[in-house]
Amino acid sequence: MGELIAVEGIDGAGKNTMVRGLVEQWRSHGDRVATFTFPRYGESVTADLAAEALHGSHGDLRESVYGMAVLFALDRAGAASEIFAAMAENDVVILDRYVASNAAYNAARLHQDADGEVVRWVADLEFGRLGLPVPDRHLFLGVPADVALGRAARRAEIDSDRARDHYERDHDLQHRVDAVYRGLAHAGWMSPWLEVTDVAEAAATARPSAG
Questions:
Q1: Is the keyword Membrane assigned to this protein (predicted)?
Q2: How far apart are CA 37 and CA 96, in angstroms?
């Protein structure tokens, strides 16, 4: 089975750029690499419902921490068989956001930290009841929160298709999410975490054959 690596960080941290860079670097060394991006907007009904709620639709759904968490969890559960198949066929599978994002965002929404009740609930729901595979390691993009928020704002200004949702516009929430992520990384939640800031560092230290 190939190694499963989850790339995590707040909005604007550079997850997509990191994933693209890792794919390019590792494939150049002959590694077989597959990727998944969550939420699967445009592919998953539950992901689309969550996105619509974050942009003001579906009444008070957005206000339900656990309701939104379940929607994002079901989106990932819908891809579980594809993830397992990709792991069987590749040296590494990279996930752009994964279960830790549900733990971090919902802990932040409830003003809990990395060892709070909702973090344990998310792990039980997604890894336990829904049977999602646990990552072999996490890569955390630990850029300062204000830098990431500035990037997200500029991205939205340039690209009309990337309008920021309710979570992305809430700077206080994003700072709390960043703090929870750092707590998860420090605790080694579910698997080892590596904090990285650039593609070269991540490619060299997280490559499966280097582990």
A1: no
A2: 5
- Quote the CA–CA distance of 193 and 6 in Å, as a whole number: 9
pLDDT of residue 147: 80
Q: Quickly tell me which residue has 């993009």 as its tokens.
A: 141
What is the structure's pLDDT at 197?
Answer: 82
**DSSP code for 134:** P
Q: Can you count the helices (H) and strands (E) in the chain? A: 10, 5
Average pLDDT over residues 15-30: 93
pLDDT band at 163 (very low <50, low <70, confident <90, very high): low
pTM: 0.88
Question: Architecture of domain 3-206 in CATH?
Answer: 3-Layer(aba) Sandwich (3.40)
DSSP annotation of 129 reads I
Torsion of CA 101, 122, 201, 153, to 10 degrees: 10
Residues in contact with 201: Cβ distance below 8 Å, sequence separation at least 6, in sequence order: none
Q: Is the pLDDT of residue 160 over 80?
A: no
Q: Which amino acid type is present at position 202?
A: A
DSSP 140-179: EE---HHHHHHHHHHHHHH-GGG---HHHH-HHHHHHHHH
118: closest CA among 57, 173, 69? Answer: 69
**Residue 196 burial (CB < 10 Å; 0-12/13-18/19+)?**
buried
Collapse the DSSP code of 66 into the 3-class scheme (helix H, G, I; strand E, B; otherwise coil) and give the result.
helix
